[in-house]
Specification:
Its EC number is 1.3.1.48, 1.3.1.74. The chain is an alpha/beta fold and about 325 residues long. It has helices spanning about 50-55, 125-140, 155-165, 175-185, 200-205, 220-225, 260-265, 280-290, 310-320; strands at about 1-10, 20-30, 35-45, 70-75, 85-90, 95-100, 105, 145-150, 170-175, 190-195, 210-215, 230-240, 265-270, 300-305, 325-329. The longest helix is centred in the middle third of the chain and has 14 residues, at about 125-140. The structure holds NADPH dihydro-nicotinamide-adenine-dinucleotide phosphate and the ligand CCCCCCCCC/C=C/C=O.
């Protein structure tokens, strides 16, 4: 008999999440039935979507939603071998039982030398978000100028590097000087700390006096309201996330987008990475190749210990992460 630790949502978040919103519990797992596997989480992901999705999809007492890289420790399913690592969507749990249907194997060409945690970041859902958002929503062309915010995070850092691979000029904004230094190190043409500039409008203008063809928006709110006025005619805005609004208890008010949308003939499109579920293999293969060639650099903020899941999640929402925030069990 195996005892799993799980984090449950004890009380729905009101405003910014607090440690007291979570409860750590233990669950006795039953013995495996034929066709089932026992898995142990090795790395767990903490992601911004957990904040808005918790309100939409969860009730108090539910295990927190989320993905992990897990190792198969026991198998009564001939299709799965003990010792193999997979990506699962089993929530914040140390151990869990699966029938195998919901598991994704790591790409077969995954090298031994590469941390498996990257399957939750650059070579996982966040990397795919950057890939499909740029390719299919922004439809970037060589020579264009791309703006991305939360640029030193899991999605943003890949957006900037892919845009460089695809021949664009890239401007990134992030919330600390260390993050800005990192962006310059990984090849962003321009980067600035949006928290310390005296005027966001001026900083955006200075970074690209001719404006922006594409804006990959991870943040929304006030940042987006300022940036939209610096789009070039026929610019494209990929509305990926709105992290500046996830913890609001009262909805933010305008400025509103219609006037610049009309006169600059902009295209603004919200998207979910899951819309390209049928092309994840293509995206993961491309991302893995670029990482192995050194064309896409990865950084991870690794928090040690399953007991620190809530702290890692809250820290990521506060901007404490450089690159992808993960927890090592
Ligand atoms: N549409 C889709 O399918 C998907 C959307 N997303 C969205 O992409 C965005 C980035 O996700 P991800 O890369 O995983 O997360 P990150 O790794 O970028 O971590 C979140 C970052 O957001 C920034 N941030 C937090 N609060 C604010 C704020 N009030 N204003 C501005 N920036 C803030 C912080 O960076 P800083 O220090 O720079 O402020 C923080 O580090 C999120 O909005 C997320 O919801 C993610 C995956 C899929
Ligand atoms: C429970 C695991 C769900 C994994 C799918 C993640 C989809 C992310 C879409 C993100 C939206 C905004 O952040």
């Amino acid at each position: 008999m195996v005892t799993a630790k799980v984090w449950v949502l004890k009380k729905h978040f009101e405003g910014f999440p607090k440690i007291s919103n979570f409860d750590l519990k233990e669950i006795e797992l039953p013995n495996l039935k034929d066709g089932e596997l026992l898995l142990q989480s090795v790395f767990l992901s903490v992601d911004p979507y957990m904040r808005p999705y918790s309100r939409r999809d969860m009730k108090e007492g539910d295990v927190m939603i989320g993905t992990q890289v897990a190792r198969i420790v026991e198998s009564k399913n001939p299709a799965f071998t003990v010792g193999v690592f997979v990506v699962a969507r089993s929530g914040w749990r140390t151990h869990f039982i699966s029938d195998g249907k919901d598991l994704q194997a790591l790409p077969s060409s995954w090298p031994e030398s590469l941390p498996r945690s990257l399957a939750l970041g650059t070579i996982g859902m966040p990397g795919l978000t950057a890939y499909f958002g740029l390719l299919e929503v922004c439809k970037t062309k060589p020579g264009e100028t791309v703006l991305v915010n939360a640029a030193a995070g899991a999605v943003g850092s890949v957006v900037g590097q892919l845009a460089k691979i695809w021949g664009c000029k890239v401007v990134g904004c992030a919330g600390s000087d260390d993050k800005v230094a990192y962006l310059k190190k990984i090849g962003f043409d321009e980067a600035f700390n949006y928290k310390t500039v005296t005027s966001l409008d001026e900083a955006l203008r200075k970074a690209s006096p001719d404006g922006y063809d594409c804006f990959f928006d991870n943040v929304g709110g006030e940042f987006a309201s300022v940036a939209i006025n610096q789009m070039k005619k026929y610019g494209r805005i990929a509305v990926c996330g709105a992290i500046s609004q996830y913890n609001d208890t009262v909805p933010q008010k305008g400025p509103y987008v219609q006037i610049p949308m009309i006169f600059k003939e902009l295209r603004m499109e919200g998207f979910l990475v899951t819309s390209w579920n049928n092309r994840w293999e293509e995206g993961l293969k491309a991302l893995l190749k670029w990482v192995m060639e050194g064309k896409v650099k990865c950084h991870e903020q690794v928090t040690e210990g399953f007991e620190n899941m809530p702290a890692a999640f809250i820290g990521m929402l506060k901007g404490e992460n450089l690159g992808k925030a993960v927890v090592k069990v």
